Amino acid sequence: MPPDAELHLPLEGEDAATVLDRVHHALEELWRTAGDVDEIDRIAVETALVEVAGNVVRHGPDGTWHGDGVHLTVRPDAVVAVARQAGPPPMLDLVPTMPSAEAESGRGLAIVAALVDVTCTAEGHGTRWTLTRRRTV
Q1: What domains are there in the chain, each with its CATH number?
Q2: Averaged confidence pLDDT in the chain
Q3: Could you tell me which of 55, 58, 64 has the C-alpha nearest to residue 109?
């Protein structure tokens, strides 16, 4: 079955502010095109994708996006975001626990994992992040 909507967002060389702005605008366009994605799914995907995109740039070598960008797909059963970045996957726990209330960092990936199914794998000379949100019925 073909997707309800899909969109590719090239991000090569963009800084953090531009990446986040372009992700927000791309999602707005995707929601308009797909039409019937539940608001809770929209919020979950947007929150997770913004967190991952921000981390890709923030923890990259020079504060810009290196890699193909993001491909967004709305299917009848799920919303999927695939982000491709240059370089090897980061060494991290994809089933993180929420840090203590006093911690100043470390919540981002825990929030992502609570909102979507997330994988981070090596792909060629880069890394593929896949965020999948099963659609609310």
Answers
A1: 5-134 (3.30.565.10)
A2: 88
A3: 55
